[in-house]
Amino acid sequence: FKQWRYNCGMMVNNKHVQFFIIILICINSIMMGIATYKFIREDDELNSIFDQIDEIFLILFTIELGLQFFFLGWKLIMDGWLMFDLVVIGASWFFKSVQIIRAFRIFRALRLVTRIKIMKNLVLALFGVMPR
């Protein structure tokens, strides 16, 4: 079991897999932006297609987070960035059908901050200089 967890962690944290996740987040963000156009919102068929695509992205992000949880166990909650991912993905599932709160999905784009080291360092630096 320990070897499975280790292999899972090596796979999910592999730089190529993480790059793939970054690409998915970018594509998902673009799709969410496109889905706000009036011609898509007013076309039930197009809107349904975009909703299905969005659900596929959410499933992929959930699988990635599940693999992280399998690897780290409850230590996952000690990592602030993974907790951010957990909250965003969990809320995306919870509020999936609530129209007004669907805008919350855009927070998935902020997951880029958790994936790109320079962005992560920038956020940490900004919090470091803020008065308390």
TrEMBL record:
It is found in: Membrane. The keyword Transmembrane helix applies. GO terms for biological process: calcium ion import across plasma membrane. It holds the Pfam family Ion_trans. Residues 16-131 form the Ion transport domain. GO terms for cellular component: voltage-gated calcium channel complex. The chain crosses the membrane at residues 16-35, 56-74, 80-101. It is a multi-pass membrane protein. GO terms for molecular function: high voltage-gated calcium channel activity. Keywords: Calcium, Calcium channel, Calcium transport, Glycoprotein, Ion channel, Ion transport, Membrane, Transmembrane, Transmembrane helix, Transport, Voltage-gated channel. It comes from the Eukaryota. The keyword Cell membrane does not apply. PANTHER family: VOLTAGE-DEPENDENT CALCIUM CHANNEL TYPE A SUBUNIT ALPHA-1 (PTHR45628). This is Ion transport domain-containing protein. The lineage of its organism: Eukaryota, Sar, Stramenopiles, Ochrophyta, Bacillariophyta.
